[in-house]
Design a protein that fits this description.
308 residues, alpha/beta, Rossmann fold, eight-stranded mixed beta sheet, 10 helices, 8 strands, 17% strand, GDXG_lipolytic_enzyme, AB_hydrolase_fold, AB_hydrolase_3, Lipase
Length: 308
Amino acid sequence: MTRHRPITDPEILRFIEKTLASYPADAADASVQQNRAYYDAMCAVFRAPRPAGLRVTDAFLGGVRCRLYGPDTAAEIVLYLHGGGFVLGGLDSHDDVCAEIAVATGCQVVAVDYRLRPEHPAPAQLEDAYAVWRALDKRAVVVGDSAGGNLAAGLCHRIRRLGGTMPLGQVLIYPDLGGDIGALSYVENAEAPLLSTAEVAFYRSLSSPEARLDPEQCPLSAHDLSGMPPAVIFTADVDPLRDDGPLYAQALKAAGVRAEIHNSAQLVHGWLRARHGSQRARDVFAEIVGTIRDFMSGQDKAARQAAD
């Protein structure tokens, strides 16, 4: 019997089928370069056209290649860190997501083309994210999906340790925060359609054992979360990583940090690419956009709830 939470939503089932069609049966045995090609081709299948009139430029910030969406005159910035297990993806894989966030929020979005593993072992990815953050000089929210969610949370820890202005908020989308691989969601969703527990273990194996004790690489290992920016975490119910989000939110709250968790039934890891073909995904993406706007205005939902 397949081990994952049930999925009955026909739009999500079609999304899963369409995604898997991009990967041959022997993809697990292919090289890193070949898997990158499969991943890029899959992302291209779902990529939506950029909104008309949006200014997009590539530039180097802090010595790191980035893609900027929206005018330089925008008062606020969204720093976006893409997913892909630290091995896959880049500026093109999440191009449409970043473009749509820029238009919907009115902010400039800065997507980071951080170095990938295994050619560039950790913490090269975090070093790149921090270098870009140091180069920014505007009010900013940090957003990341999957491995990018790990980077977004880790970046906040590094900023606190090494200095710099903290983000106004952190938006973590189905993040890998280093949870125990024997925890409930890793067992319950061990064979989830688009990310299995075995795949999580593989991606984590590319880090050193010491990384499990470093809150900048494994945020759930942190003993001190005081001073972190407020967080809103979006998890997918059919995802081994699901329980990382509520555990991190609970730890943040225990340290006096505002945190909010949204778990979406029937959604799977990588659902961002389903936002134009699934009403569930479309609705949650709208919530993410609204959360970014609220952080920029200083009126995030968690703060409003705390005031009530």
